[in-house]
Amino acid sequence: MTPDDFQKLATLLKSQSGLVLGPDKSYLAESRLTPVARNWGFPDAKALIRALVRREGKGGDSKLLLEVVEAMTTNESFFFRDQRPFDQLRDVILPSLLTSRGTNKRLRIWSAACSSGQEPYSIAMILNDMQHKLRDWRIEIIATDLSRPILHRATEGRYTQFEVQRGLPVTLLAKYFTQDGDQWRISEQLRRMVTFKVHNLLDGPGTLGRFDIVYCRNVLIYFDQATKGKVLEGIAANLADDGFLTLGGAETVLGVTDKFKMVDGQRGLYARADGTATALKGAPGAAGQTGRVGAA
Amino acid sequence: MKCCLIVDDSKVVRMVARKILEALQFEILEAGDGQQAMQACEQTMPDAILLDWNMPVMNGIDFLRQLRQHAGGDRPVVIFCTTENDMAHIQEALGAGANEYIMKPFDSDILESKFAQVGLL
Ligand SMILES: C[S@@+](CC[C@H](N)C(=O)[O-])C[C@H]1O[C@@H](n2cnc3c(N)ncnc32)[C@H](O)[C@@H]1O
């Protein structure tokens, strides 16, 4: 594809999904779009992009465009990714909300850009392991992504041997998975705890309702500053006063929005700047060693 | 420096695992079967044991049962590393006192992730 084709693709991709294609990603685009092109009967990625641009002028081909965007997403994920955000859920976030919500006993959790489901299922495993404290609580986990094929995989809950060995302790594999051919399937009990929905972060969380806990991890890194700010402000507007936001290891609110403040001593964990959320005293902090998920 | 005993009857597997674990700052000992591994443990108890299942002379699960009976044998973190990749074997390993379980083929990401999970890194 020519630099001009690539530029047109980058513009379409950014307007549809926020994803920014760096100038060195021409090879990546070519290799990801070639299968889509073949599927749609185009000789190559270049022809596909040109058709897309032509159709854009005539009102657009939303089906083709969506497939192109889906093909350009990076879906890497693993169970208990980075560990800390999940320790924080058990040791900081839930203890705080269990106190502030003691009377209405409802929580809504959003895994935004959930990819193949490892993030919401990791959350579900933690909640399930804390059952004794959550007995009459109503907890919803809503997991969303822009990509329909990846959500289909997430809903199915089938993982390869490689995927169940990255981040997932074997005790949790034994507890929550069954073998299905050469794949491992997560239990129906956990699948029923998570509701998967197609959702574009550029549309804001409006239609999804208000949340108490938001995991928005390893997706903002693909956006430019303005898009990051817009997405984070949408999340802030739909986050409960006492709610929490967790970002990925390479992501921050600093210099992007002033709607969030960092939770003291808890890396990667944020609360609304005008909100009431706090880490309870005695929560394992930056200096303290946090326990491990699934440890006896 | 932490010490890891690699128990596998394949020289190639031992070499691959050694390379990865040395890069993670482990001192490495090797054994080619369960009996050699038991002798190595009687000399010095390692901090960690990476353990194959099927081996001549003494297999991995028999070695693990003996080790856990042995004085000081409750201390090493034991991570199975085997082609046995079904739930029945995993349950049997956990029942015998294994701490983690790697299904071959493995790569450095999996090895590192498992060693981190059991608190060795
Ligand atoms: C690298 S994965 C992150 C998965 C998981 N959150 C984690 O941390 O492991 C990024 C995901 O963001 C999704 N994504 C990209 N742009 C999006 C958008 N505008 N709206 C919703 N999801 C988007 C991609 O489809 C992909 O599955």
Automatic annotation (TrEMBL), chain A:
Q: What is this protein's name?
A: protein-glutamate O-methyltransferase
Lineage, please?
A: Bacteria, Pseudomonadati, Pseudomonadota, Alphaproteobacteria, Rhodospirillales
Tell me if S-adenosyl-L-methionine is a UniProt keyword of this record.
yes
Entry EC no(s): 2.1.1.80
Membrane-spanning ranges: none
Q: Where is the CheR-type methyltransferase domain?
A: 1-264
Q: Which SMART domains match?
A: MeTrc
Domain of life, per the record?
Bacteria
InterPro entries named in the record: Bact_Chemotaxis_MeTrfase, CheR_C, CheR_MeTrfase, CheR_N, CheR_N_sf, SAM-dependent_MTases_sf
Q: Which SUPFAM superfamilies match?
A: Chemotaxis receptor methyltransferase CheR, N-terminal domain, S-adenosyl-L-methionine-dependent methyltransferases
Q: Under which main EC class is this enzyme filed?
A: transferase
- Native source species: Rhodovibrio sodomensis
Pfam families linked to this entry: CheR, CheR_N
Q: Say if the entry is tagged with keyword Cell division.
A: no
What reaction does this catalyse? L-glutamyl-[protein] + S-adenosyl-L-methionine = [protein]-L-glutamate 5-O-methyl ester + S-adenosyl-L-homocysteine
Alphabetized, the UniProt keywords read:
Methyltransferase, S-adenosyl-L-methionine, Transferase
Among Gene3D superfamilies, the record links this protein to: Chemotaxis receptor methyltransferase CheR, N-terminal domain, Vaccinia Virus protein VP39
From TrEMBL, chain B:
Q: Does Phosphoprotein show up as a keyword for this record? A: yes
In the UniProt record, does the keyword tRNA-binding occur?
A: no
Q: Which PROSITE patterns match?
A: RESPONSE_REGULATORY
Q: Entry's InterPro entries?
A: CheY-like_superfamily, Sig_transdc_resp-reg_receiver, ST_Response_Regulator
Annotated ranges, domain Response regulatory? 3-119
Organism name? Rhodovibrio sodomensis
The major lineage groups are: Bacteria, Pseudomonadati, Pseudomonadota, Alphaproteobacteria, Rhodospirillales
Residues modified as 4-aspartylphosphate: D52
Task: Identify the keywords attached in UniProt to this record, alphabetized.
Answer: Phosphoprotein
Instruction: Quote any Pfam family the record assigns.
Output: Response_reg
Task: Extract the SMART domains matched here.
Answer: REC
Q: What is this protein called?
A: Two-component system response regulator
